[in-house]
Design a protein that fits this description.
The protein is of the alpha+beta class and 424 residues long. It contains 13 helices and 20 strands. 29% of the residues lie in helices and 27% in strands.
Amino acid sequence: MKVLVVGGGGREHAIAWKLSKENNVEKIYCAPGNAGIAKVAQCVNISDSDIENLVKFAKENNIDLTVVGPEVPLVNGIVDEFEKEGLKIFGPNKECSTFEGSKSFSKDFMIRHNIPTAKYKEYTNLDEAISEIDSFGYPVVIKADGLAAGKGVVIPENREDAINTLREIMSDKKFGSAGEKIVVEEFLSGIETSILAFVDNDTIVPMVSAKDHKKVYNFEKGPNTGGMGTFSPSEIYTDELSQEISEKVLNRTLQGFKKDKLNYKGILFIGLMITEDGPKVLEYNVRFGDPETQSVLFRLETDLHKIMEAILDNKLKDIEINYKKEEAVCVMLTSGGYPEDYEKGKVITGLEDLDEDIVVFHSGTKMLDGNLVTNGGRVIGITTSAGSVEQAAKKVYKNIEKINFEGMHYRTDIGIKFCEEIFF
């Protein structure tokens, strides 16, 4: 098989890395890729949003399967365009990708199909939003309706901050057209977790659980990021909770797809808050999460391309999906200043000295004048597995000590037992 992976971050590196270990996969291309992906795939200088040239490349190079990593090309209809040309592509179509492209679309779906979620209201008028903001209580959750590169959710603690946030999003266009409509929700207290699932028309199969840490500093302090690290499995994901989520969230979501005649095939990411009243859905995403993917695919034993082909053939129920018993940890090394302003082009050293069982997933790197340098906020994810999460974490942190670049920042509490007891 020839496979094209669309995207250039840590998630796409994990996908390409997994595919590279599978016997039936002969050649992997990645568009645009990054310096780390270049070690397992041939990087192609095409933007992940340049659908026309991606289609052209897939046709000219006889690509057997295209796998889409990021949300933007999915929301923009890359799957529909590939299918028009008779090309096999893995990911939900444009209609189904609206689950990530519009917060209000997702919330309306949840309410219609009795999927537990926070109370909400959508607004397109700033004055109306300001006049009703107190009715939600504080803190309050304010979301730009459209795609905002993972930054469109703000949680003001009081009325003054809430009104300022509304003005920034709706009047000042902080998130551009994504904020022309907003969703305001009640704030949910509890423990946040997430589920990645494989989905076809008849079946939804959750992957092994993973815990993602969004805050930039230890002990869940500081601003939200794209994710500072993950471990799998999540300590809170008990058999009892798994059963409740399966009944109230997964099964109702699948039935909702059927009732609404949505041809959903691909990955579904479900963000959850485990509250005193049980699990409630925070959001749907229509692709692998990042950096959850790095931990989950590290444990996946079944060939990924076989699962994807089964989904496209609507035969997910016929494939057995197995995972390593070993537990995995991924710790992100980020640029100084992230998630706010940061500098690029810092030389990265020490990767050649890491233990053999450490895998480095590149999120934001490139080669410059023969040196590996930083090229993003999240730079690399240091990943391994062991008999327990804590053992894997200790191995990761021991190897991080060998790595250096100017301004390097990382959390020191991912997967560490005494820290997790505080979180949970």
